[in-house]
Amino acid sequence: MQQRFAFYATVILGLLLEQSYAQAPTVTGVSPTSGSVGTVVTVTGNNFTGATSVRFNGITASFSGVTATSIIATVPGGATTGPISVVTPGGTGVSATTFVVNPVPVISSFTPTRGYEGTVVTLTGTNFGGLTSVRFNGLNAPGFIVNGAGNSVTVRVPAGATSGLISVTSPSGTQSSAANFAACGPAPVRAGFTFLGGNQTSAFYLSTGTATWTGAQANCQAAGGNLAKIPDAATSALLVTATGGIKYWIGLNDVAVEGQFRWVSDNSLATYFNWCVNNPNNYTGIDPNGEDYVSIDCANGQWNDADNRNVPTVNPLPPYILELPVCATVSTSTIPITEAIDVSVHPNPAHTTATVAVPALTGATITTLTLTDALGRTARTETVALPATGLLYEMKVSGLAPGLYALRVEAGTLRTVRRLVVE
Ligand SMILES: [Ca+2]
Ligand SMILES: [Ca+2]
């Protein structure tokens, strides 16, 4: 009995001693030295055996592969830049260097909040530096440009975009905007004009031909609009960027009262000005009646009052900018995932009918198919049974105006939107 007691006492003492004298861990290396949430990191050092915790700036991480000199850890959600620590029964080791956690990009706002395909949208936010993609309601928008400070992105609304949230993705993760972007489909076609872009209220087009100012305004009215109004510096910059700095007529004139410049679209007095140096000067050297029509004539989109160019001059006739109201309110989805159902539709473009294939969905016995036009107006709504074998549904499209439609397929809480062209 005494021998057995002595044996156990020795064992227990030995365990106590080992516990007491376990060496504190030291962290000597981290690879890589930066990463995003989910990045796998190798931590090297000494005395890691028995590790109970690995932390990134205090946030507990999952880990594996513990040896005396290394641990594999994964950057945890919520981690911030700071040291990595390893905890063992012998103590805590802290890296001398900080591990840099790349922050997740965040969209704080965007403008405009509606627009046609090709419209430039500016996203404002933070951590756009390592951006890998921008999406409109899940649809990739290629060719985005991040500014140097990483707090602004310009991106064009991609063809086929549907209304919904805008999301940005970097290696650190994906974040969606809080508000929906209203996608208006392709810009309406206007003969003799090319769509340039738009802002919150207007769509702008550049004429393919040239004209006098009065001829240009007549052509714009025939197209359903007016020569463009430039009420602020942002609109001026939009047009200068979109046109590449060429010369063009705008809707400003002082035809009614000399020196009182008004916009032709709404007859309002101009309050924002961007004159070329020494202008307006109502020069009478070319046309003795003076200069009553404004064109973009100088650098940075600056304005010159000019004659109507009815008389032969050394100045060629310029093209001109048509302004139309931007699309009206369009329906928006508040469901960020729009690929929830694997829907297919054919033919597309469709002429008389479109066959919509909806797979069987657990728990769903009916599905609603809604066709909306480019302005968000409902053109067709059908609620039909969704069989256990899936659905092949012939949707009638004859009688609909040709154009772009959004086909929304809903079943239970799931929803998918597909683009459908009717010819
Ligand atoms: Ca004048
Ligand atoms: Ca002038």
Tally of alpha and pi helices: 3
Say which CATH homologous superfamily of the largest domain is assigned.
Mannose-Binding Protein A, subunit A
Low-confidence stretches: 333-339
The radius of gyration is 33 Å
Largest sheet: 5 strands, mixed
Q: Which topology of the largest domain does CATH recognise?
A: Mannose-Binding Protein A, Chain A
Whole-number mean pLDDT: 89
Number of domains: 4
Strand content: 35-45%
Give the quaternary arrangement of the chains. single chain
Separation of termini?
Answer: 99 Å
Shape: flat
**Fraction in helix:** under 10%
How many beta-strand segments? Answer: 33
CATH architectural arrangement of the largest domain: Roll
Ligand roster: calcium ion
CATH class annotation of the largest domain:
Alpha Beta
